[in-house]
Amino acid sequence: MATILEQYQQKSEDYRSQIEADSFPLEDLMALQEMNYRVCVLETFQSMLQVTPITTDLRVIIKHFQVVYFYMELLLKERKFGPKVDETQKQKRDTALASLENVVQDGKKRFMSFTAPTPDIYKKCIGKYCDAVLPMWMQYRETYISLQGGQGL
User: Fold this and answer.
1) Which residues contact 66 (CB under 8 A, 6 or more apart)?
2) What CA–CA distance (Å, rounded) separates 97 from 141?
3) pTM, whole model, 2 decimals?
C-alpha cells in the first residue's frame, strides 16, 4: 500500500501530465498548489529523519532537534490559504490548529529533559514525535484545502 507521500507524488505526476498536455482543469489549481506544498513538507520531514544522528552527544542531538522543531513551528504559521468558509468550518480550522499546536508543544516539553542513554534512542524518539505531529498537520491542512475528500486524491 502506498504511503500518503507516494500517493501525493503520483497525483502530482498526474497533474504535471495534464499540464503538459494542456488539459489541466483550472478548478484543480488550488489542489495542485496544496499537493505541491504537502509533498514538500513530507519530503522535508523524511529527509530530516533520514539524517537523524545516532549518538549520545546532546550537543549534536540539540542541533538536529532545533531544526526539526523550528520547522514544525513554521507549519503552525504558514499557508493559511483556502476557499472562503463558513463559521463552522472556521471553528474546525481553529480546533485543528489548536490540536496541532498542543502536539508540537508537548513534544518540545518532552525533549527539554531528553537524555540519550543509548545512541539510537534519539532516532526512535524524534521519529515518534514526527509521527504524532504529521497526522495532526494533515488534519489541519484538510480544513483549508481537502485533498482526501475527493478534491485531490
Assistant:
1) none
2) 9
3) 0.90
Pair 70, 108: CB distance under 8 Å: no
CA nearest neighbour of 31 among 48, 5, 11, 61: 11
| Torsional sign, CA 15, 17, 22, 23 | negative
CB of 144 closer than 8 Å to CB of 80: yes
User: What is the 3-class SS of 90-152, one letter each residue?
Assistant: HHHHHHHHHHHHHHHHHHHHHHHCCCCCCCCHHHHHHHHHHHHHHHHHHHHHHCCCCCCCCCC
Buried b (16+ CB within 10 A) or exposed e, 101-115: bebbeebeeebeeee
pLDDT at position 81: 85
pLDDT tens digits, one per residue of 100-125: 999 999 999 999 999 999 999 999 99
